[in-house]
Amino acid sequence: MTPVMGKKAAKGTFWADAMADEILQHVDRHPRLQQIVADQGMLVYDEKTPSGIIHVGSSRGWILHDVIARALRGKGAPAHFVLSSDDMDPYDKPSAGLPREEWDQHLGKPFRHIPSPVEGYESFGDCYFRQCTDLFDQYAIEAGLETTGGLYEDGSFDAAIQTALDQTAAIQGIYTELYGDTPASHRLPFAPLCEQCGRIGTTRALEWDGARGLIRYECRSDIQSYKDPVTYERTYIPGCGHEGWRSPFGGGGKFPWKVEWAAKWITKGVIAEWAGKDHFSKGGSRTASCKFSVDIFDYPPPYPSSGYRTGNGYEFLNVGGRKMSTSKGAGVSFAEVTEVLSPSMMRFLMVRSEPNKVIDFDPNRTPDIVNLYNEHDRTERVAHGIVTKEPDALVSKLDRVHFYTYPERGELAGREAPARVKFPLAAIVGQSVETAEEATATLRAMGHLPEGRGHAETALRVGEARSWLGAYADDSKLRIALNDAVPADLEIDDASRAVFAGMAADLSAHVDGTEVLTEQDFKGRIFAHICDAGIEQRPFFGVAYEALLGRPNGPQLSTFLMSLGARALPLLNEAAGT
RNA sequence: GGGCCCAUAGCUCAACUGGCAGAGCAUCGGACUCUUAAUCCGCAGGUUCCAGGUUCGAUUCCUGGUGGGCUCACCA
């Protein structure tokens, strides 16, 4: 391939396109990387430890890597995104939702060797990893999947293990240089897997015999500790006391994290890999890994790093102003969010925001949701060339946002934009009818959908609105709930009762088919009744909403009643006093 | 204490690699026999966090502050 020789990316360039340019330059600077790309393509890499239910914040990284890989492919580079499950990592503290008496026995073991808490998965690690990756299609995330444990077991890491252990002194020196004289300054950079008890978090490597390729270790009870979630006491994971020699190769153990990260880069030939900004803090794991990569493995650390310079990680996705945390069991899981919010919307949210901007998203805040849908729809319209009120710079940006939000749509030229119904309307109609079919029919009758189009996307959106209302919108104004009965303390004068009676009669006739009314007809009847009764419109509607919903306002009455159909009749009759 | 990121209209964000600060939503006003988080039209909304510096010109670049977020043993 011929990398596009990049100038510095223009400031107005969409973030993913600009990053792709920089990655191509990164490759250009290193002949070694050019060779790797020629041999195996351009690897965009990410990894995740499956230590429990994975929260929604992690999806920002997956989407980011997917978008970057697509941007690179868009420039002709043979890029692909691979996500690895760090399932060789040990289960290092009790997991929030699992019974202690059953699961504490597995503390210290690699996630890939612990049974799955949920049926149908190969292991603990497989379970939590795949609960997410099985949803990737819905998010249009195109990723190759692998497990880090698998890489240990198939020998991929063997060369790096040999290198690291042979250079133990140099690695210890780097730890000392970065962190001072800490325990890591004196340890072998490897955690053997105990042959007797299968734990990896409780072992200490004692001696490396490079000639025989064996490592001496013991399995102890003073290595790995956690803060007990109930008693808050520091508790040590018990090792089995085994001591012996074993081969570190072929799955015989794992690197400590910071060394492992660097080992992966050279082993896999990683060209680009981000992580959350927490890893990129000065003195953090990326700092150490870059050092190991350059000094120990002699490999150029992947973009956005360059040599010892780490570059910057991406910002967090906060939900309701809080950083999500897997281990604290707080927050919203990725799988859970997917059931309630549209994957397209989540993807849109993350594509439109530059990686260095915090995203604070709260599904409990109705305006957040309404706004997100509005912005999404506008982006879609602009991308289809429908609205051109926006300034040019914004149009070209929204164009790219749309492209990366819906990569599967491809070229839009000459294609009609999906017919979108605004989210609040979808929510109201969705609550007053039973099925998506009815909702679509109602919306079509109301004139919100063009003839013959918009059925599928509208049914989808009504479904999204309903799921969201079911999960998050308890106190949202968009929630409507029919009264069981007309509130006892509601005063209804005789004139108003007559209007209710008239509406009930009209609606009833419409429902049993003796009279076919369009929405316009029905609307006209309502006003005729009000006029006949000789009362003011405004106060009457207030009374009507109190009678039906227990609120002073609500959706347009004619639409609302028609979409309710027979379900509205008991209340209308009661209000009419009949 | 050190480091990184962020700060533009009430909210969410733009501003084409320094050139008259713009959109969407909300608010407000008007229209539609019609109350709405429906539709259409319109008004208003800004000392671009502060103080300096570079420049003919700074939201943009530099320095120093302020506020917010994240992070800096081990583990990941």
Can you give me a brief rundown of this structure?
The chain is of the alpha/beta class.
Which spans of ≥5 residues are poorly predicted at pLDDT below 50? 1-10, 321-330
- CATH architecture annotation name of the largest domain: 3-Layer(aba) Sandwich
Number of DSSP E strands? 13
Please identify which CATH superfamily of the largest domain we are dealing with. Answer: HUPs
Q: Give the fraction of residues assigned to helices.
A: 40-55%
How many distinct domains?
A: 3
Number of alpha- plus pi-helical segments: 23
Structural class: alpha/beta
Shape: elongated
Q: How can the largest sheet be summarized?
A: 4 strands, parallel
In the sheet with the most strands, the strands line up as 3-2-1-11
Kindly report the average pLDDT value.
85
**Rg on CA atoms, Å:** 30 Å
Question: What is the CATH C-level name of the largest domain?
Answer: Alpha Beta
> Per CATH, what is the topology of the largest domain?
Rossmann fold
